[in-house]
Amino acid sequence: MSKSISFEFFPTTEQAQLDEIKSLLSWSLQVKSGFYLPKFISITQTNELLELQFSLIDFCKSIFAERLNKHKQEVQIFAHLAAGLRTENEVDDLIKQFRESDISNILALRGDIQSNLQHQNKSFAHASDLILYIKNNFPEFNFAVAGYPEKHPESISLDSDIDRLKRKADLGAQFILTQFFLDEDAWLRFLDKGETVGIKTPIIAGILGISSFQQVINFAEKCRVKLPSDFLTRLEKYKDDKEALADFSTDYLTELCKKVLATPAKGLHFFTLNRSKQVIEILSNLETGVAIG
Question: What is the separation of C-alpha 235 from the centre of its chain, rounded to a whole number of angstroms?
């Protein structure tokens, strides 16, 4: 598995966001370098509007059908499946719908249950429970798993989280897709601990697009992600200057991506938030090798 890029999109009914998704995919499918042809895309899931996940899958497929004629490589689609609040029958129905949509790849998740503990299904208390269920009942499906460079918020330690990650990956995961991070030291520590316990599954780094000061603060608090002090100081300095903040965050993320690609990571997965401009700028920077200020 060579170095690759990939994108995450979330279901939406807003035409402006759909246009952004099409813009990013169209750009990546027409540039000359094969690096920018995404290895896969992932489509997130909402409990309230499940049909939108399938609508977005169809939307992306239509773009691939239009643009991929000159490429031999196929872009895979991984559908998120969060099972922590679902019954086995509901999981069965969803996977059957994936099959009907010609989707055979699942990002297997427990999902966030903290705000709805009374509805938690003990059959899927952990993502590994879902993985075993898929393997036993839908063996034709591939699956990927999530990793957390700074540990899952509910884990007692990074070491215990890495042990759990190895157990998930050893069930046959295609790859490990990580939570976003902004601290290079956290990433290197995560890789080192993964190597120590013998994780052999390819690891792909999650990269979060940055659109505002408050957005980063909110995501970091929710996901328990460390914000390096120098990054936070400069981000706060530019919080009321949209253009300066965009320039700084794009430069910072470009440099972070360069450092990640110099490690054993197998690729970059951009959590796009359905925005195209910054992702395109970062990828263009990586191609041209511009100096980062």
Answer: 23
